[in-house]
Amino acid sequence: MNTKLLAYLFLFFSLQSYSQITFQKGYFIDNNNTKTDCLIKNLDWLNNPTDLEYKLDEQDQPIKINVSQLKSFGIENESKYERHAVDIDRSSRILSEMGYDKNPIFKSEDLLLKVLIEGKATLLEYNNDNLTRYFFKTDSIPVTQLIHKSYKVTEAQIAENSQYKQQLWMGLKCDNIAIKEVENLTYKKNRLIKFFIKYNQCNNSEFVDFKVKEKKDRDFFNLNIRPGITSSSLSVSNEANTLNYADFKNKIGFRVGLEAEFVFPFNKNKWSFIFEPTYSSYKAESTTVNPSGRRRDFTADYNYIEFAAGFRHYMFLNNDSKLFINAQYVMEHVSSNSKVVANYYDNITELEITPNNSFALGLGYNYKKKYSIEARTNLKNVLGNYLEWTSKYQSFALVFGYSIF
Q1: Quick check: helix, strand or coil at residue 9?
Q2: What DSSP designation does 130 have?
């Protein structure tokens, strides 16, 4: 029942989650150079958006507009996008799709680009699924792709065209930038951002670092202590002998865990990857009486460590409060003395409890990124190594969280 209830709640909140993303102050400039101040639905796009929703007033109905109708748009204190006609190389980095030509294969396209650094030298980014390209511009250089292409030399050998280093050395010269620094520059967002910041500072140019604005008030890694109270039940049965049955009922226990959470840097911090090792134990006794009045005594001793890995989705209620839902795959390590013992007039049968992987669902509440409470459940068969014996172990936990990092 607990599992079904959490599953229904999980589905309900998943369907409702999109309404939690808010409209923020921003603007857009259309193709007629008309600027409109408005409220923009900030989806914190992973891929460069193809359309956006806006309101002229908080009470208005949202209006959807395609980015082909815009020259640029921005969200106050957070992000900016510009549309440009550019030449882009879409060569794949996937080995099976890679060619032998080291030169970029350009195609003229009208693209919306995300501004990362804006100044005397501006760095822009294009993201679409598995394709990431960086562009730059200056007062004398139009928007140009920084060329970085992987290509085959042989079927077993890959090389790289790193022409972007030459482009930056020739286009962004400054006394404080040595050629060795350019030669060691990798085609990575953070490294390119640092390089463009250094160039603008070297030229005493004012610049805007949108990556800093984007990261403001964000925590990309959290470490949480996770103690909790468990309510667990176990039943075992033997298909060959219906008298070999025991229902251990519910037992209240404790669990302790440590959770590492990695928040994805998109979609307004609403998604994260979580990994949590947890220790729990279950001990219980049960007695079964057959129709002739003979009894069989059962004991269960189950000590285990779970390694749960999965995803968490947040639904923001306000600046301090948010709900979340978890879906995790659980791998298990069981101590060597974990077993179910059946004693029938000193005829003892010992059944070894073996590791069993399972899935867990959770629904919780987080307050001020510091405190949390979660209800979670999972279901598994702990006698998976036996053909005739089956079992059902169900655990429901109330987990308390405290962020230490």
Answers
A1: helix
A2: T
For residue 199, is it left (φ>0), alpha (ψ between -120 and 50) or beta? alpha
Determine which of 6-15, 119-128, 288-297 has the lowest per-residue pLDDT on average. Answer: 6-15
The answer to whether residues 2 and 363 touch, using CB atoms and an 8 Å cutoff, is no
pLDDT score, position 19: 43
Structural contact between residues 404 and 13, judged by C-beta atoms closer than 8 angstroms: no
386-395 as b/e: b if 16+ CB within 10 A: beebebebbb
Name the fold adopted by 221-403.
Answer: Porin (2.40.160)
345: left (phi over 0), alpha (psi -120 to 50) or beta: left
Q: How many CA atoms lie within 13 A of 131 on its CB side?
A: 11
Cβ-Cβ contacts under 8 Å for 293 (sequence gap 6 or more): none
Q: Give pairs for 246-250: CB < 8 Å, separation 24+.
A: 246/286, 246/288, 246/296, 246/298, 246/300, 246/340, 246/342, 247/286, 248/284, 248/285, 248/286, 248/298, 248/300, 249/284, 249/286
- Determine the Cα–Cα distance for residues 367 and 318; give it in Å rounded to an integer: 10
Average pLDDT, the chain: 88
- Asked if the model's pLDDT at residue 230 lies above 50, the reply is yes
| pLDDT at position 1 over 80 | no
Pairing of strands 63-66, 241-263: unpaired
Half-sphere exposure of 371 (CA within 13 A, CB side): 3
Between the alpha carbon of residue 376 and those of residues 6, 119, 347, 400, the distances in Å are 8, 49, 38, 11
**pLDDT for 64-87, tens place per residue?**
999 999 999 999 888 999 999 999
- Provide φ and ψ at 200, rounded to 5°: -65, -40
| Domain residue ranges in the chain | 77-215, 221-403
Give pLDDT, residue 21. 59
User: In this predicted model, what pLDDT tens digit does every residue of 89-104 receive, in sequence order?
Assistant: 999 888 888 989 999 9
More confident of the two residues 176 and 320: 176
Per-residue buried b or exposed e for 266-284, using 16+ beta carbons within 10 Å of the residue's own CB: eebbbbbebebbbebbbeb
Determine the Cα–Cα distance for residues 314 and 366; give it in Å rounded to an integer.
9
Read off the pLDDT of each residue in 299-312 and give the average, rounded to a whole number. 94
Rounded to a whole number of angstroms, the distance between the first and last alpha carbons of the chain is: 35
Let me know if 149 is exposed, middle or buried by CB neighbors in 10 A (0-12, 13-18, 19+): buried
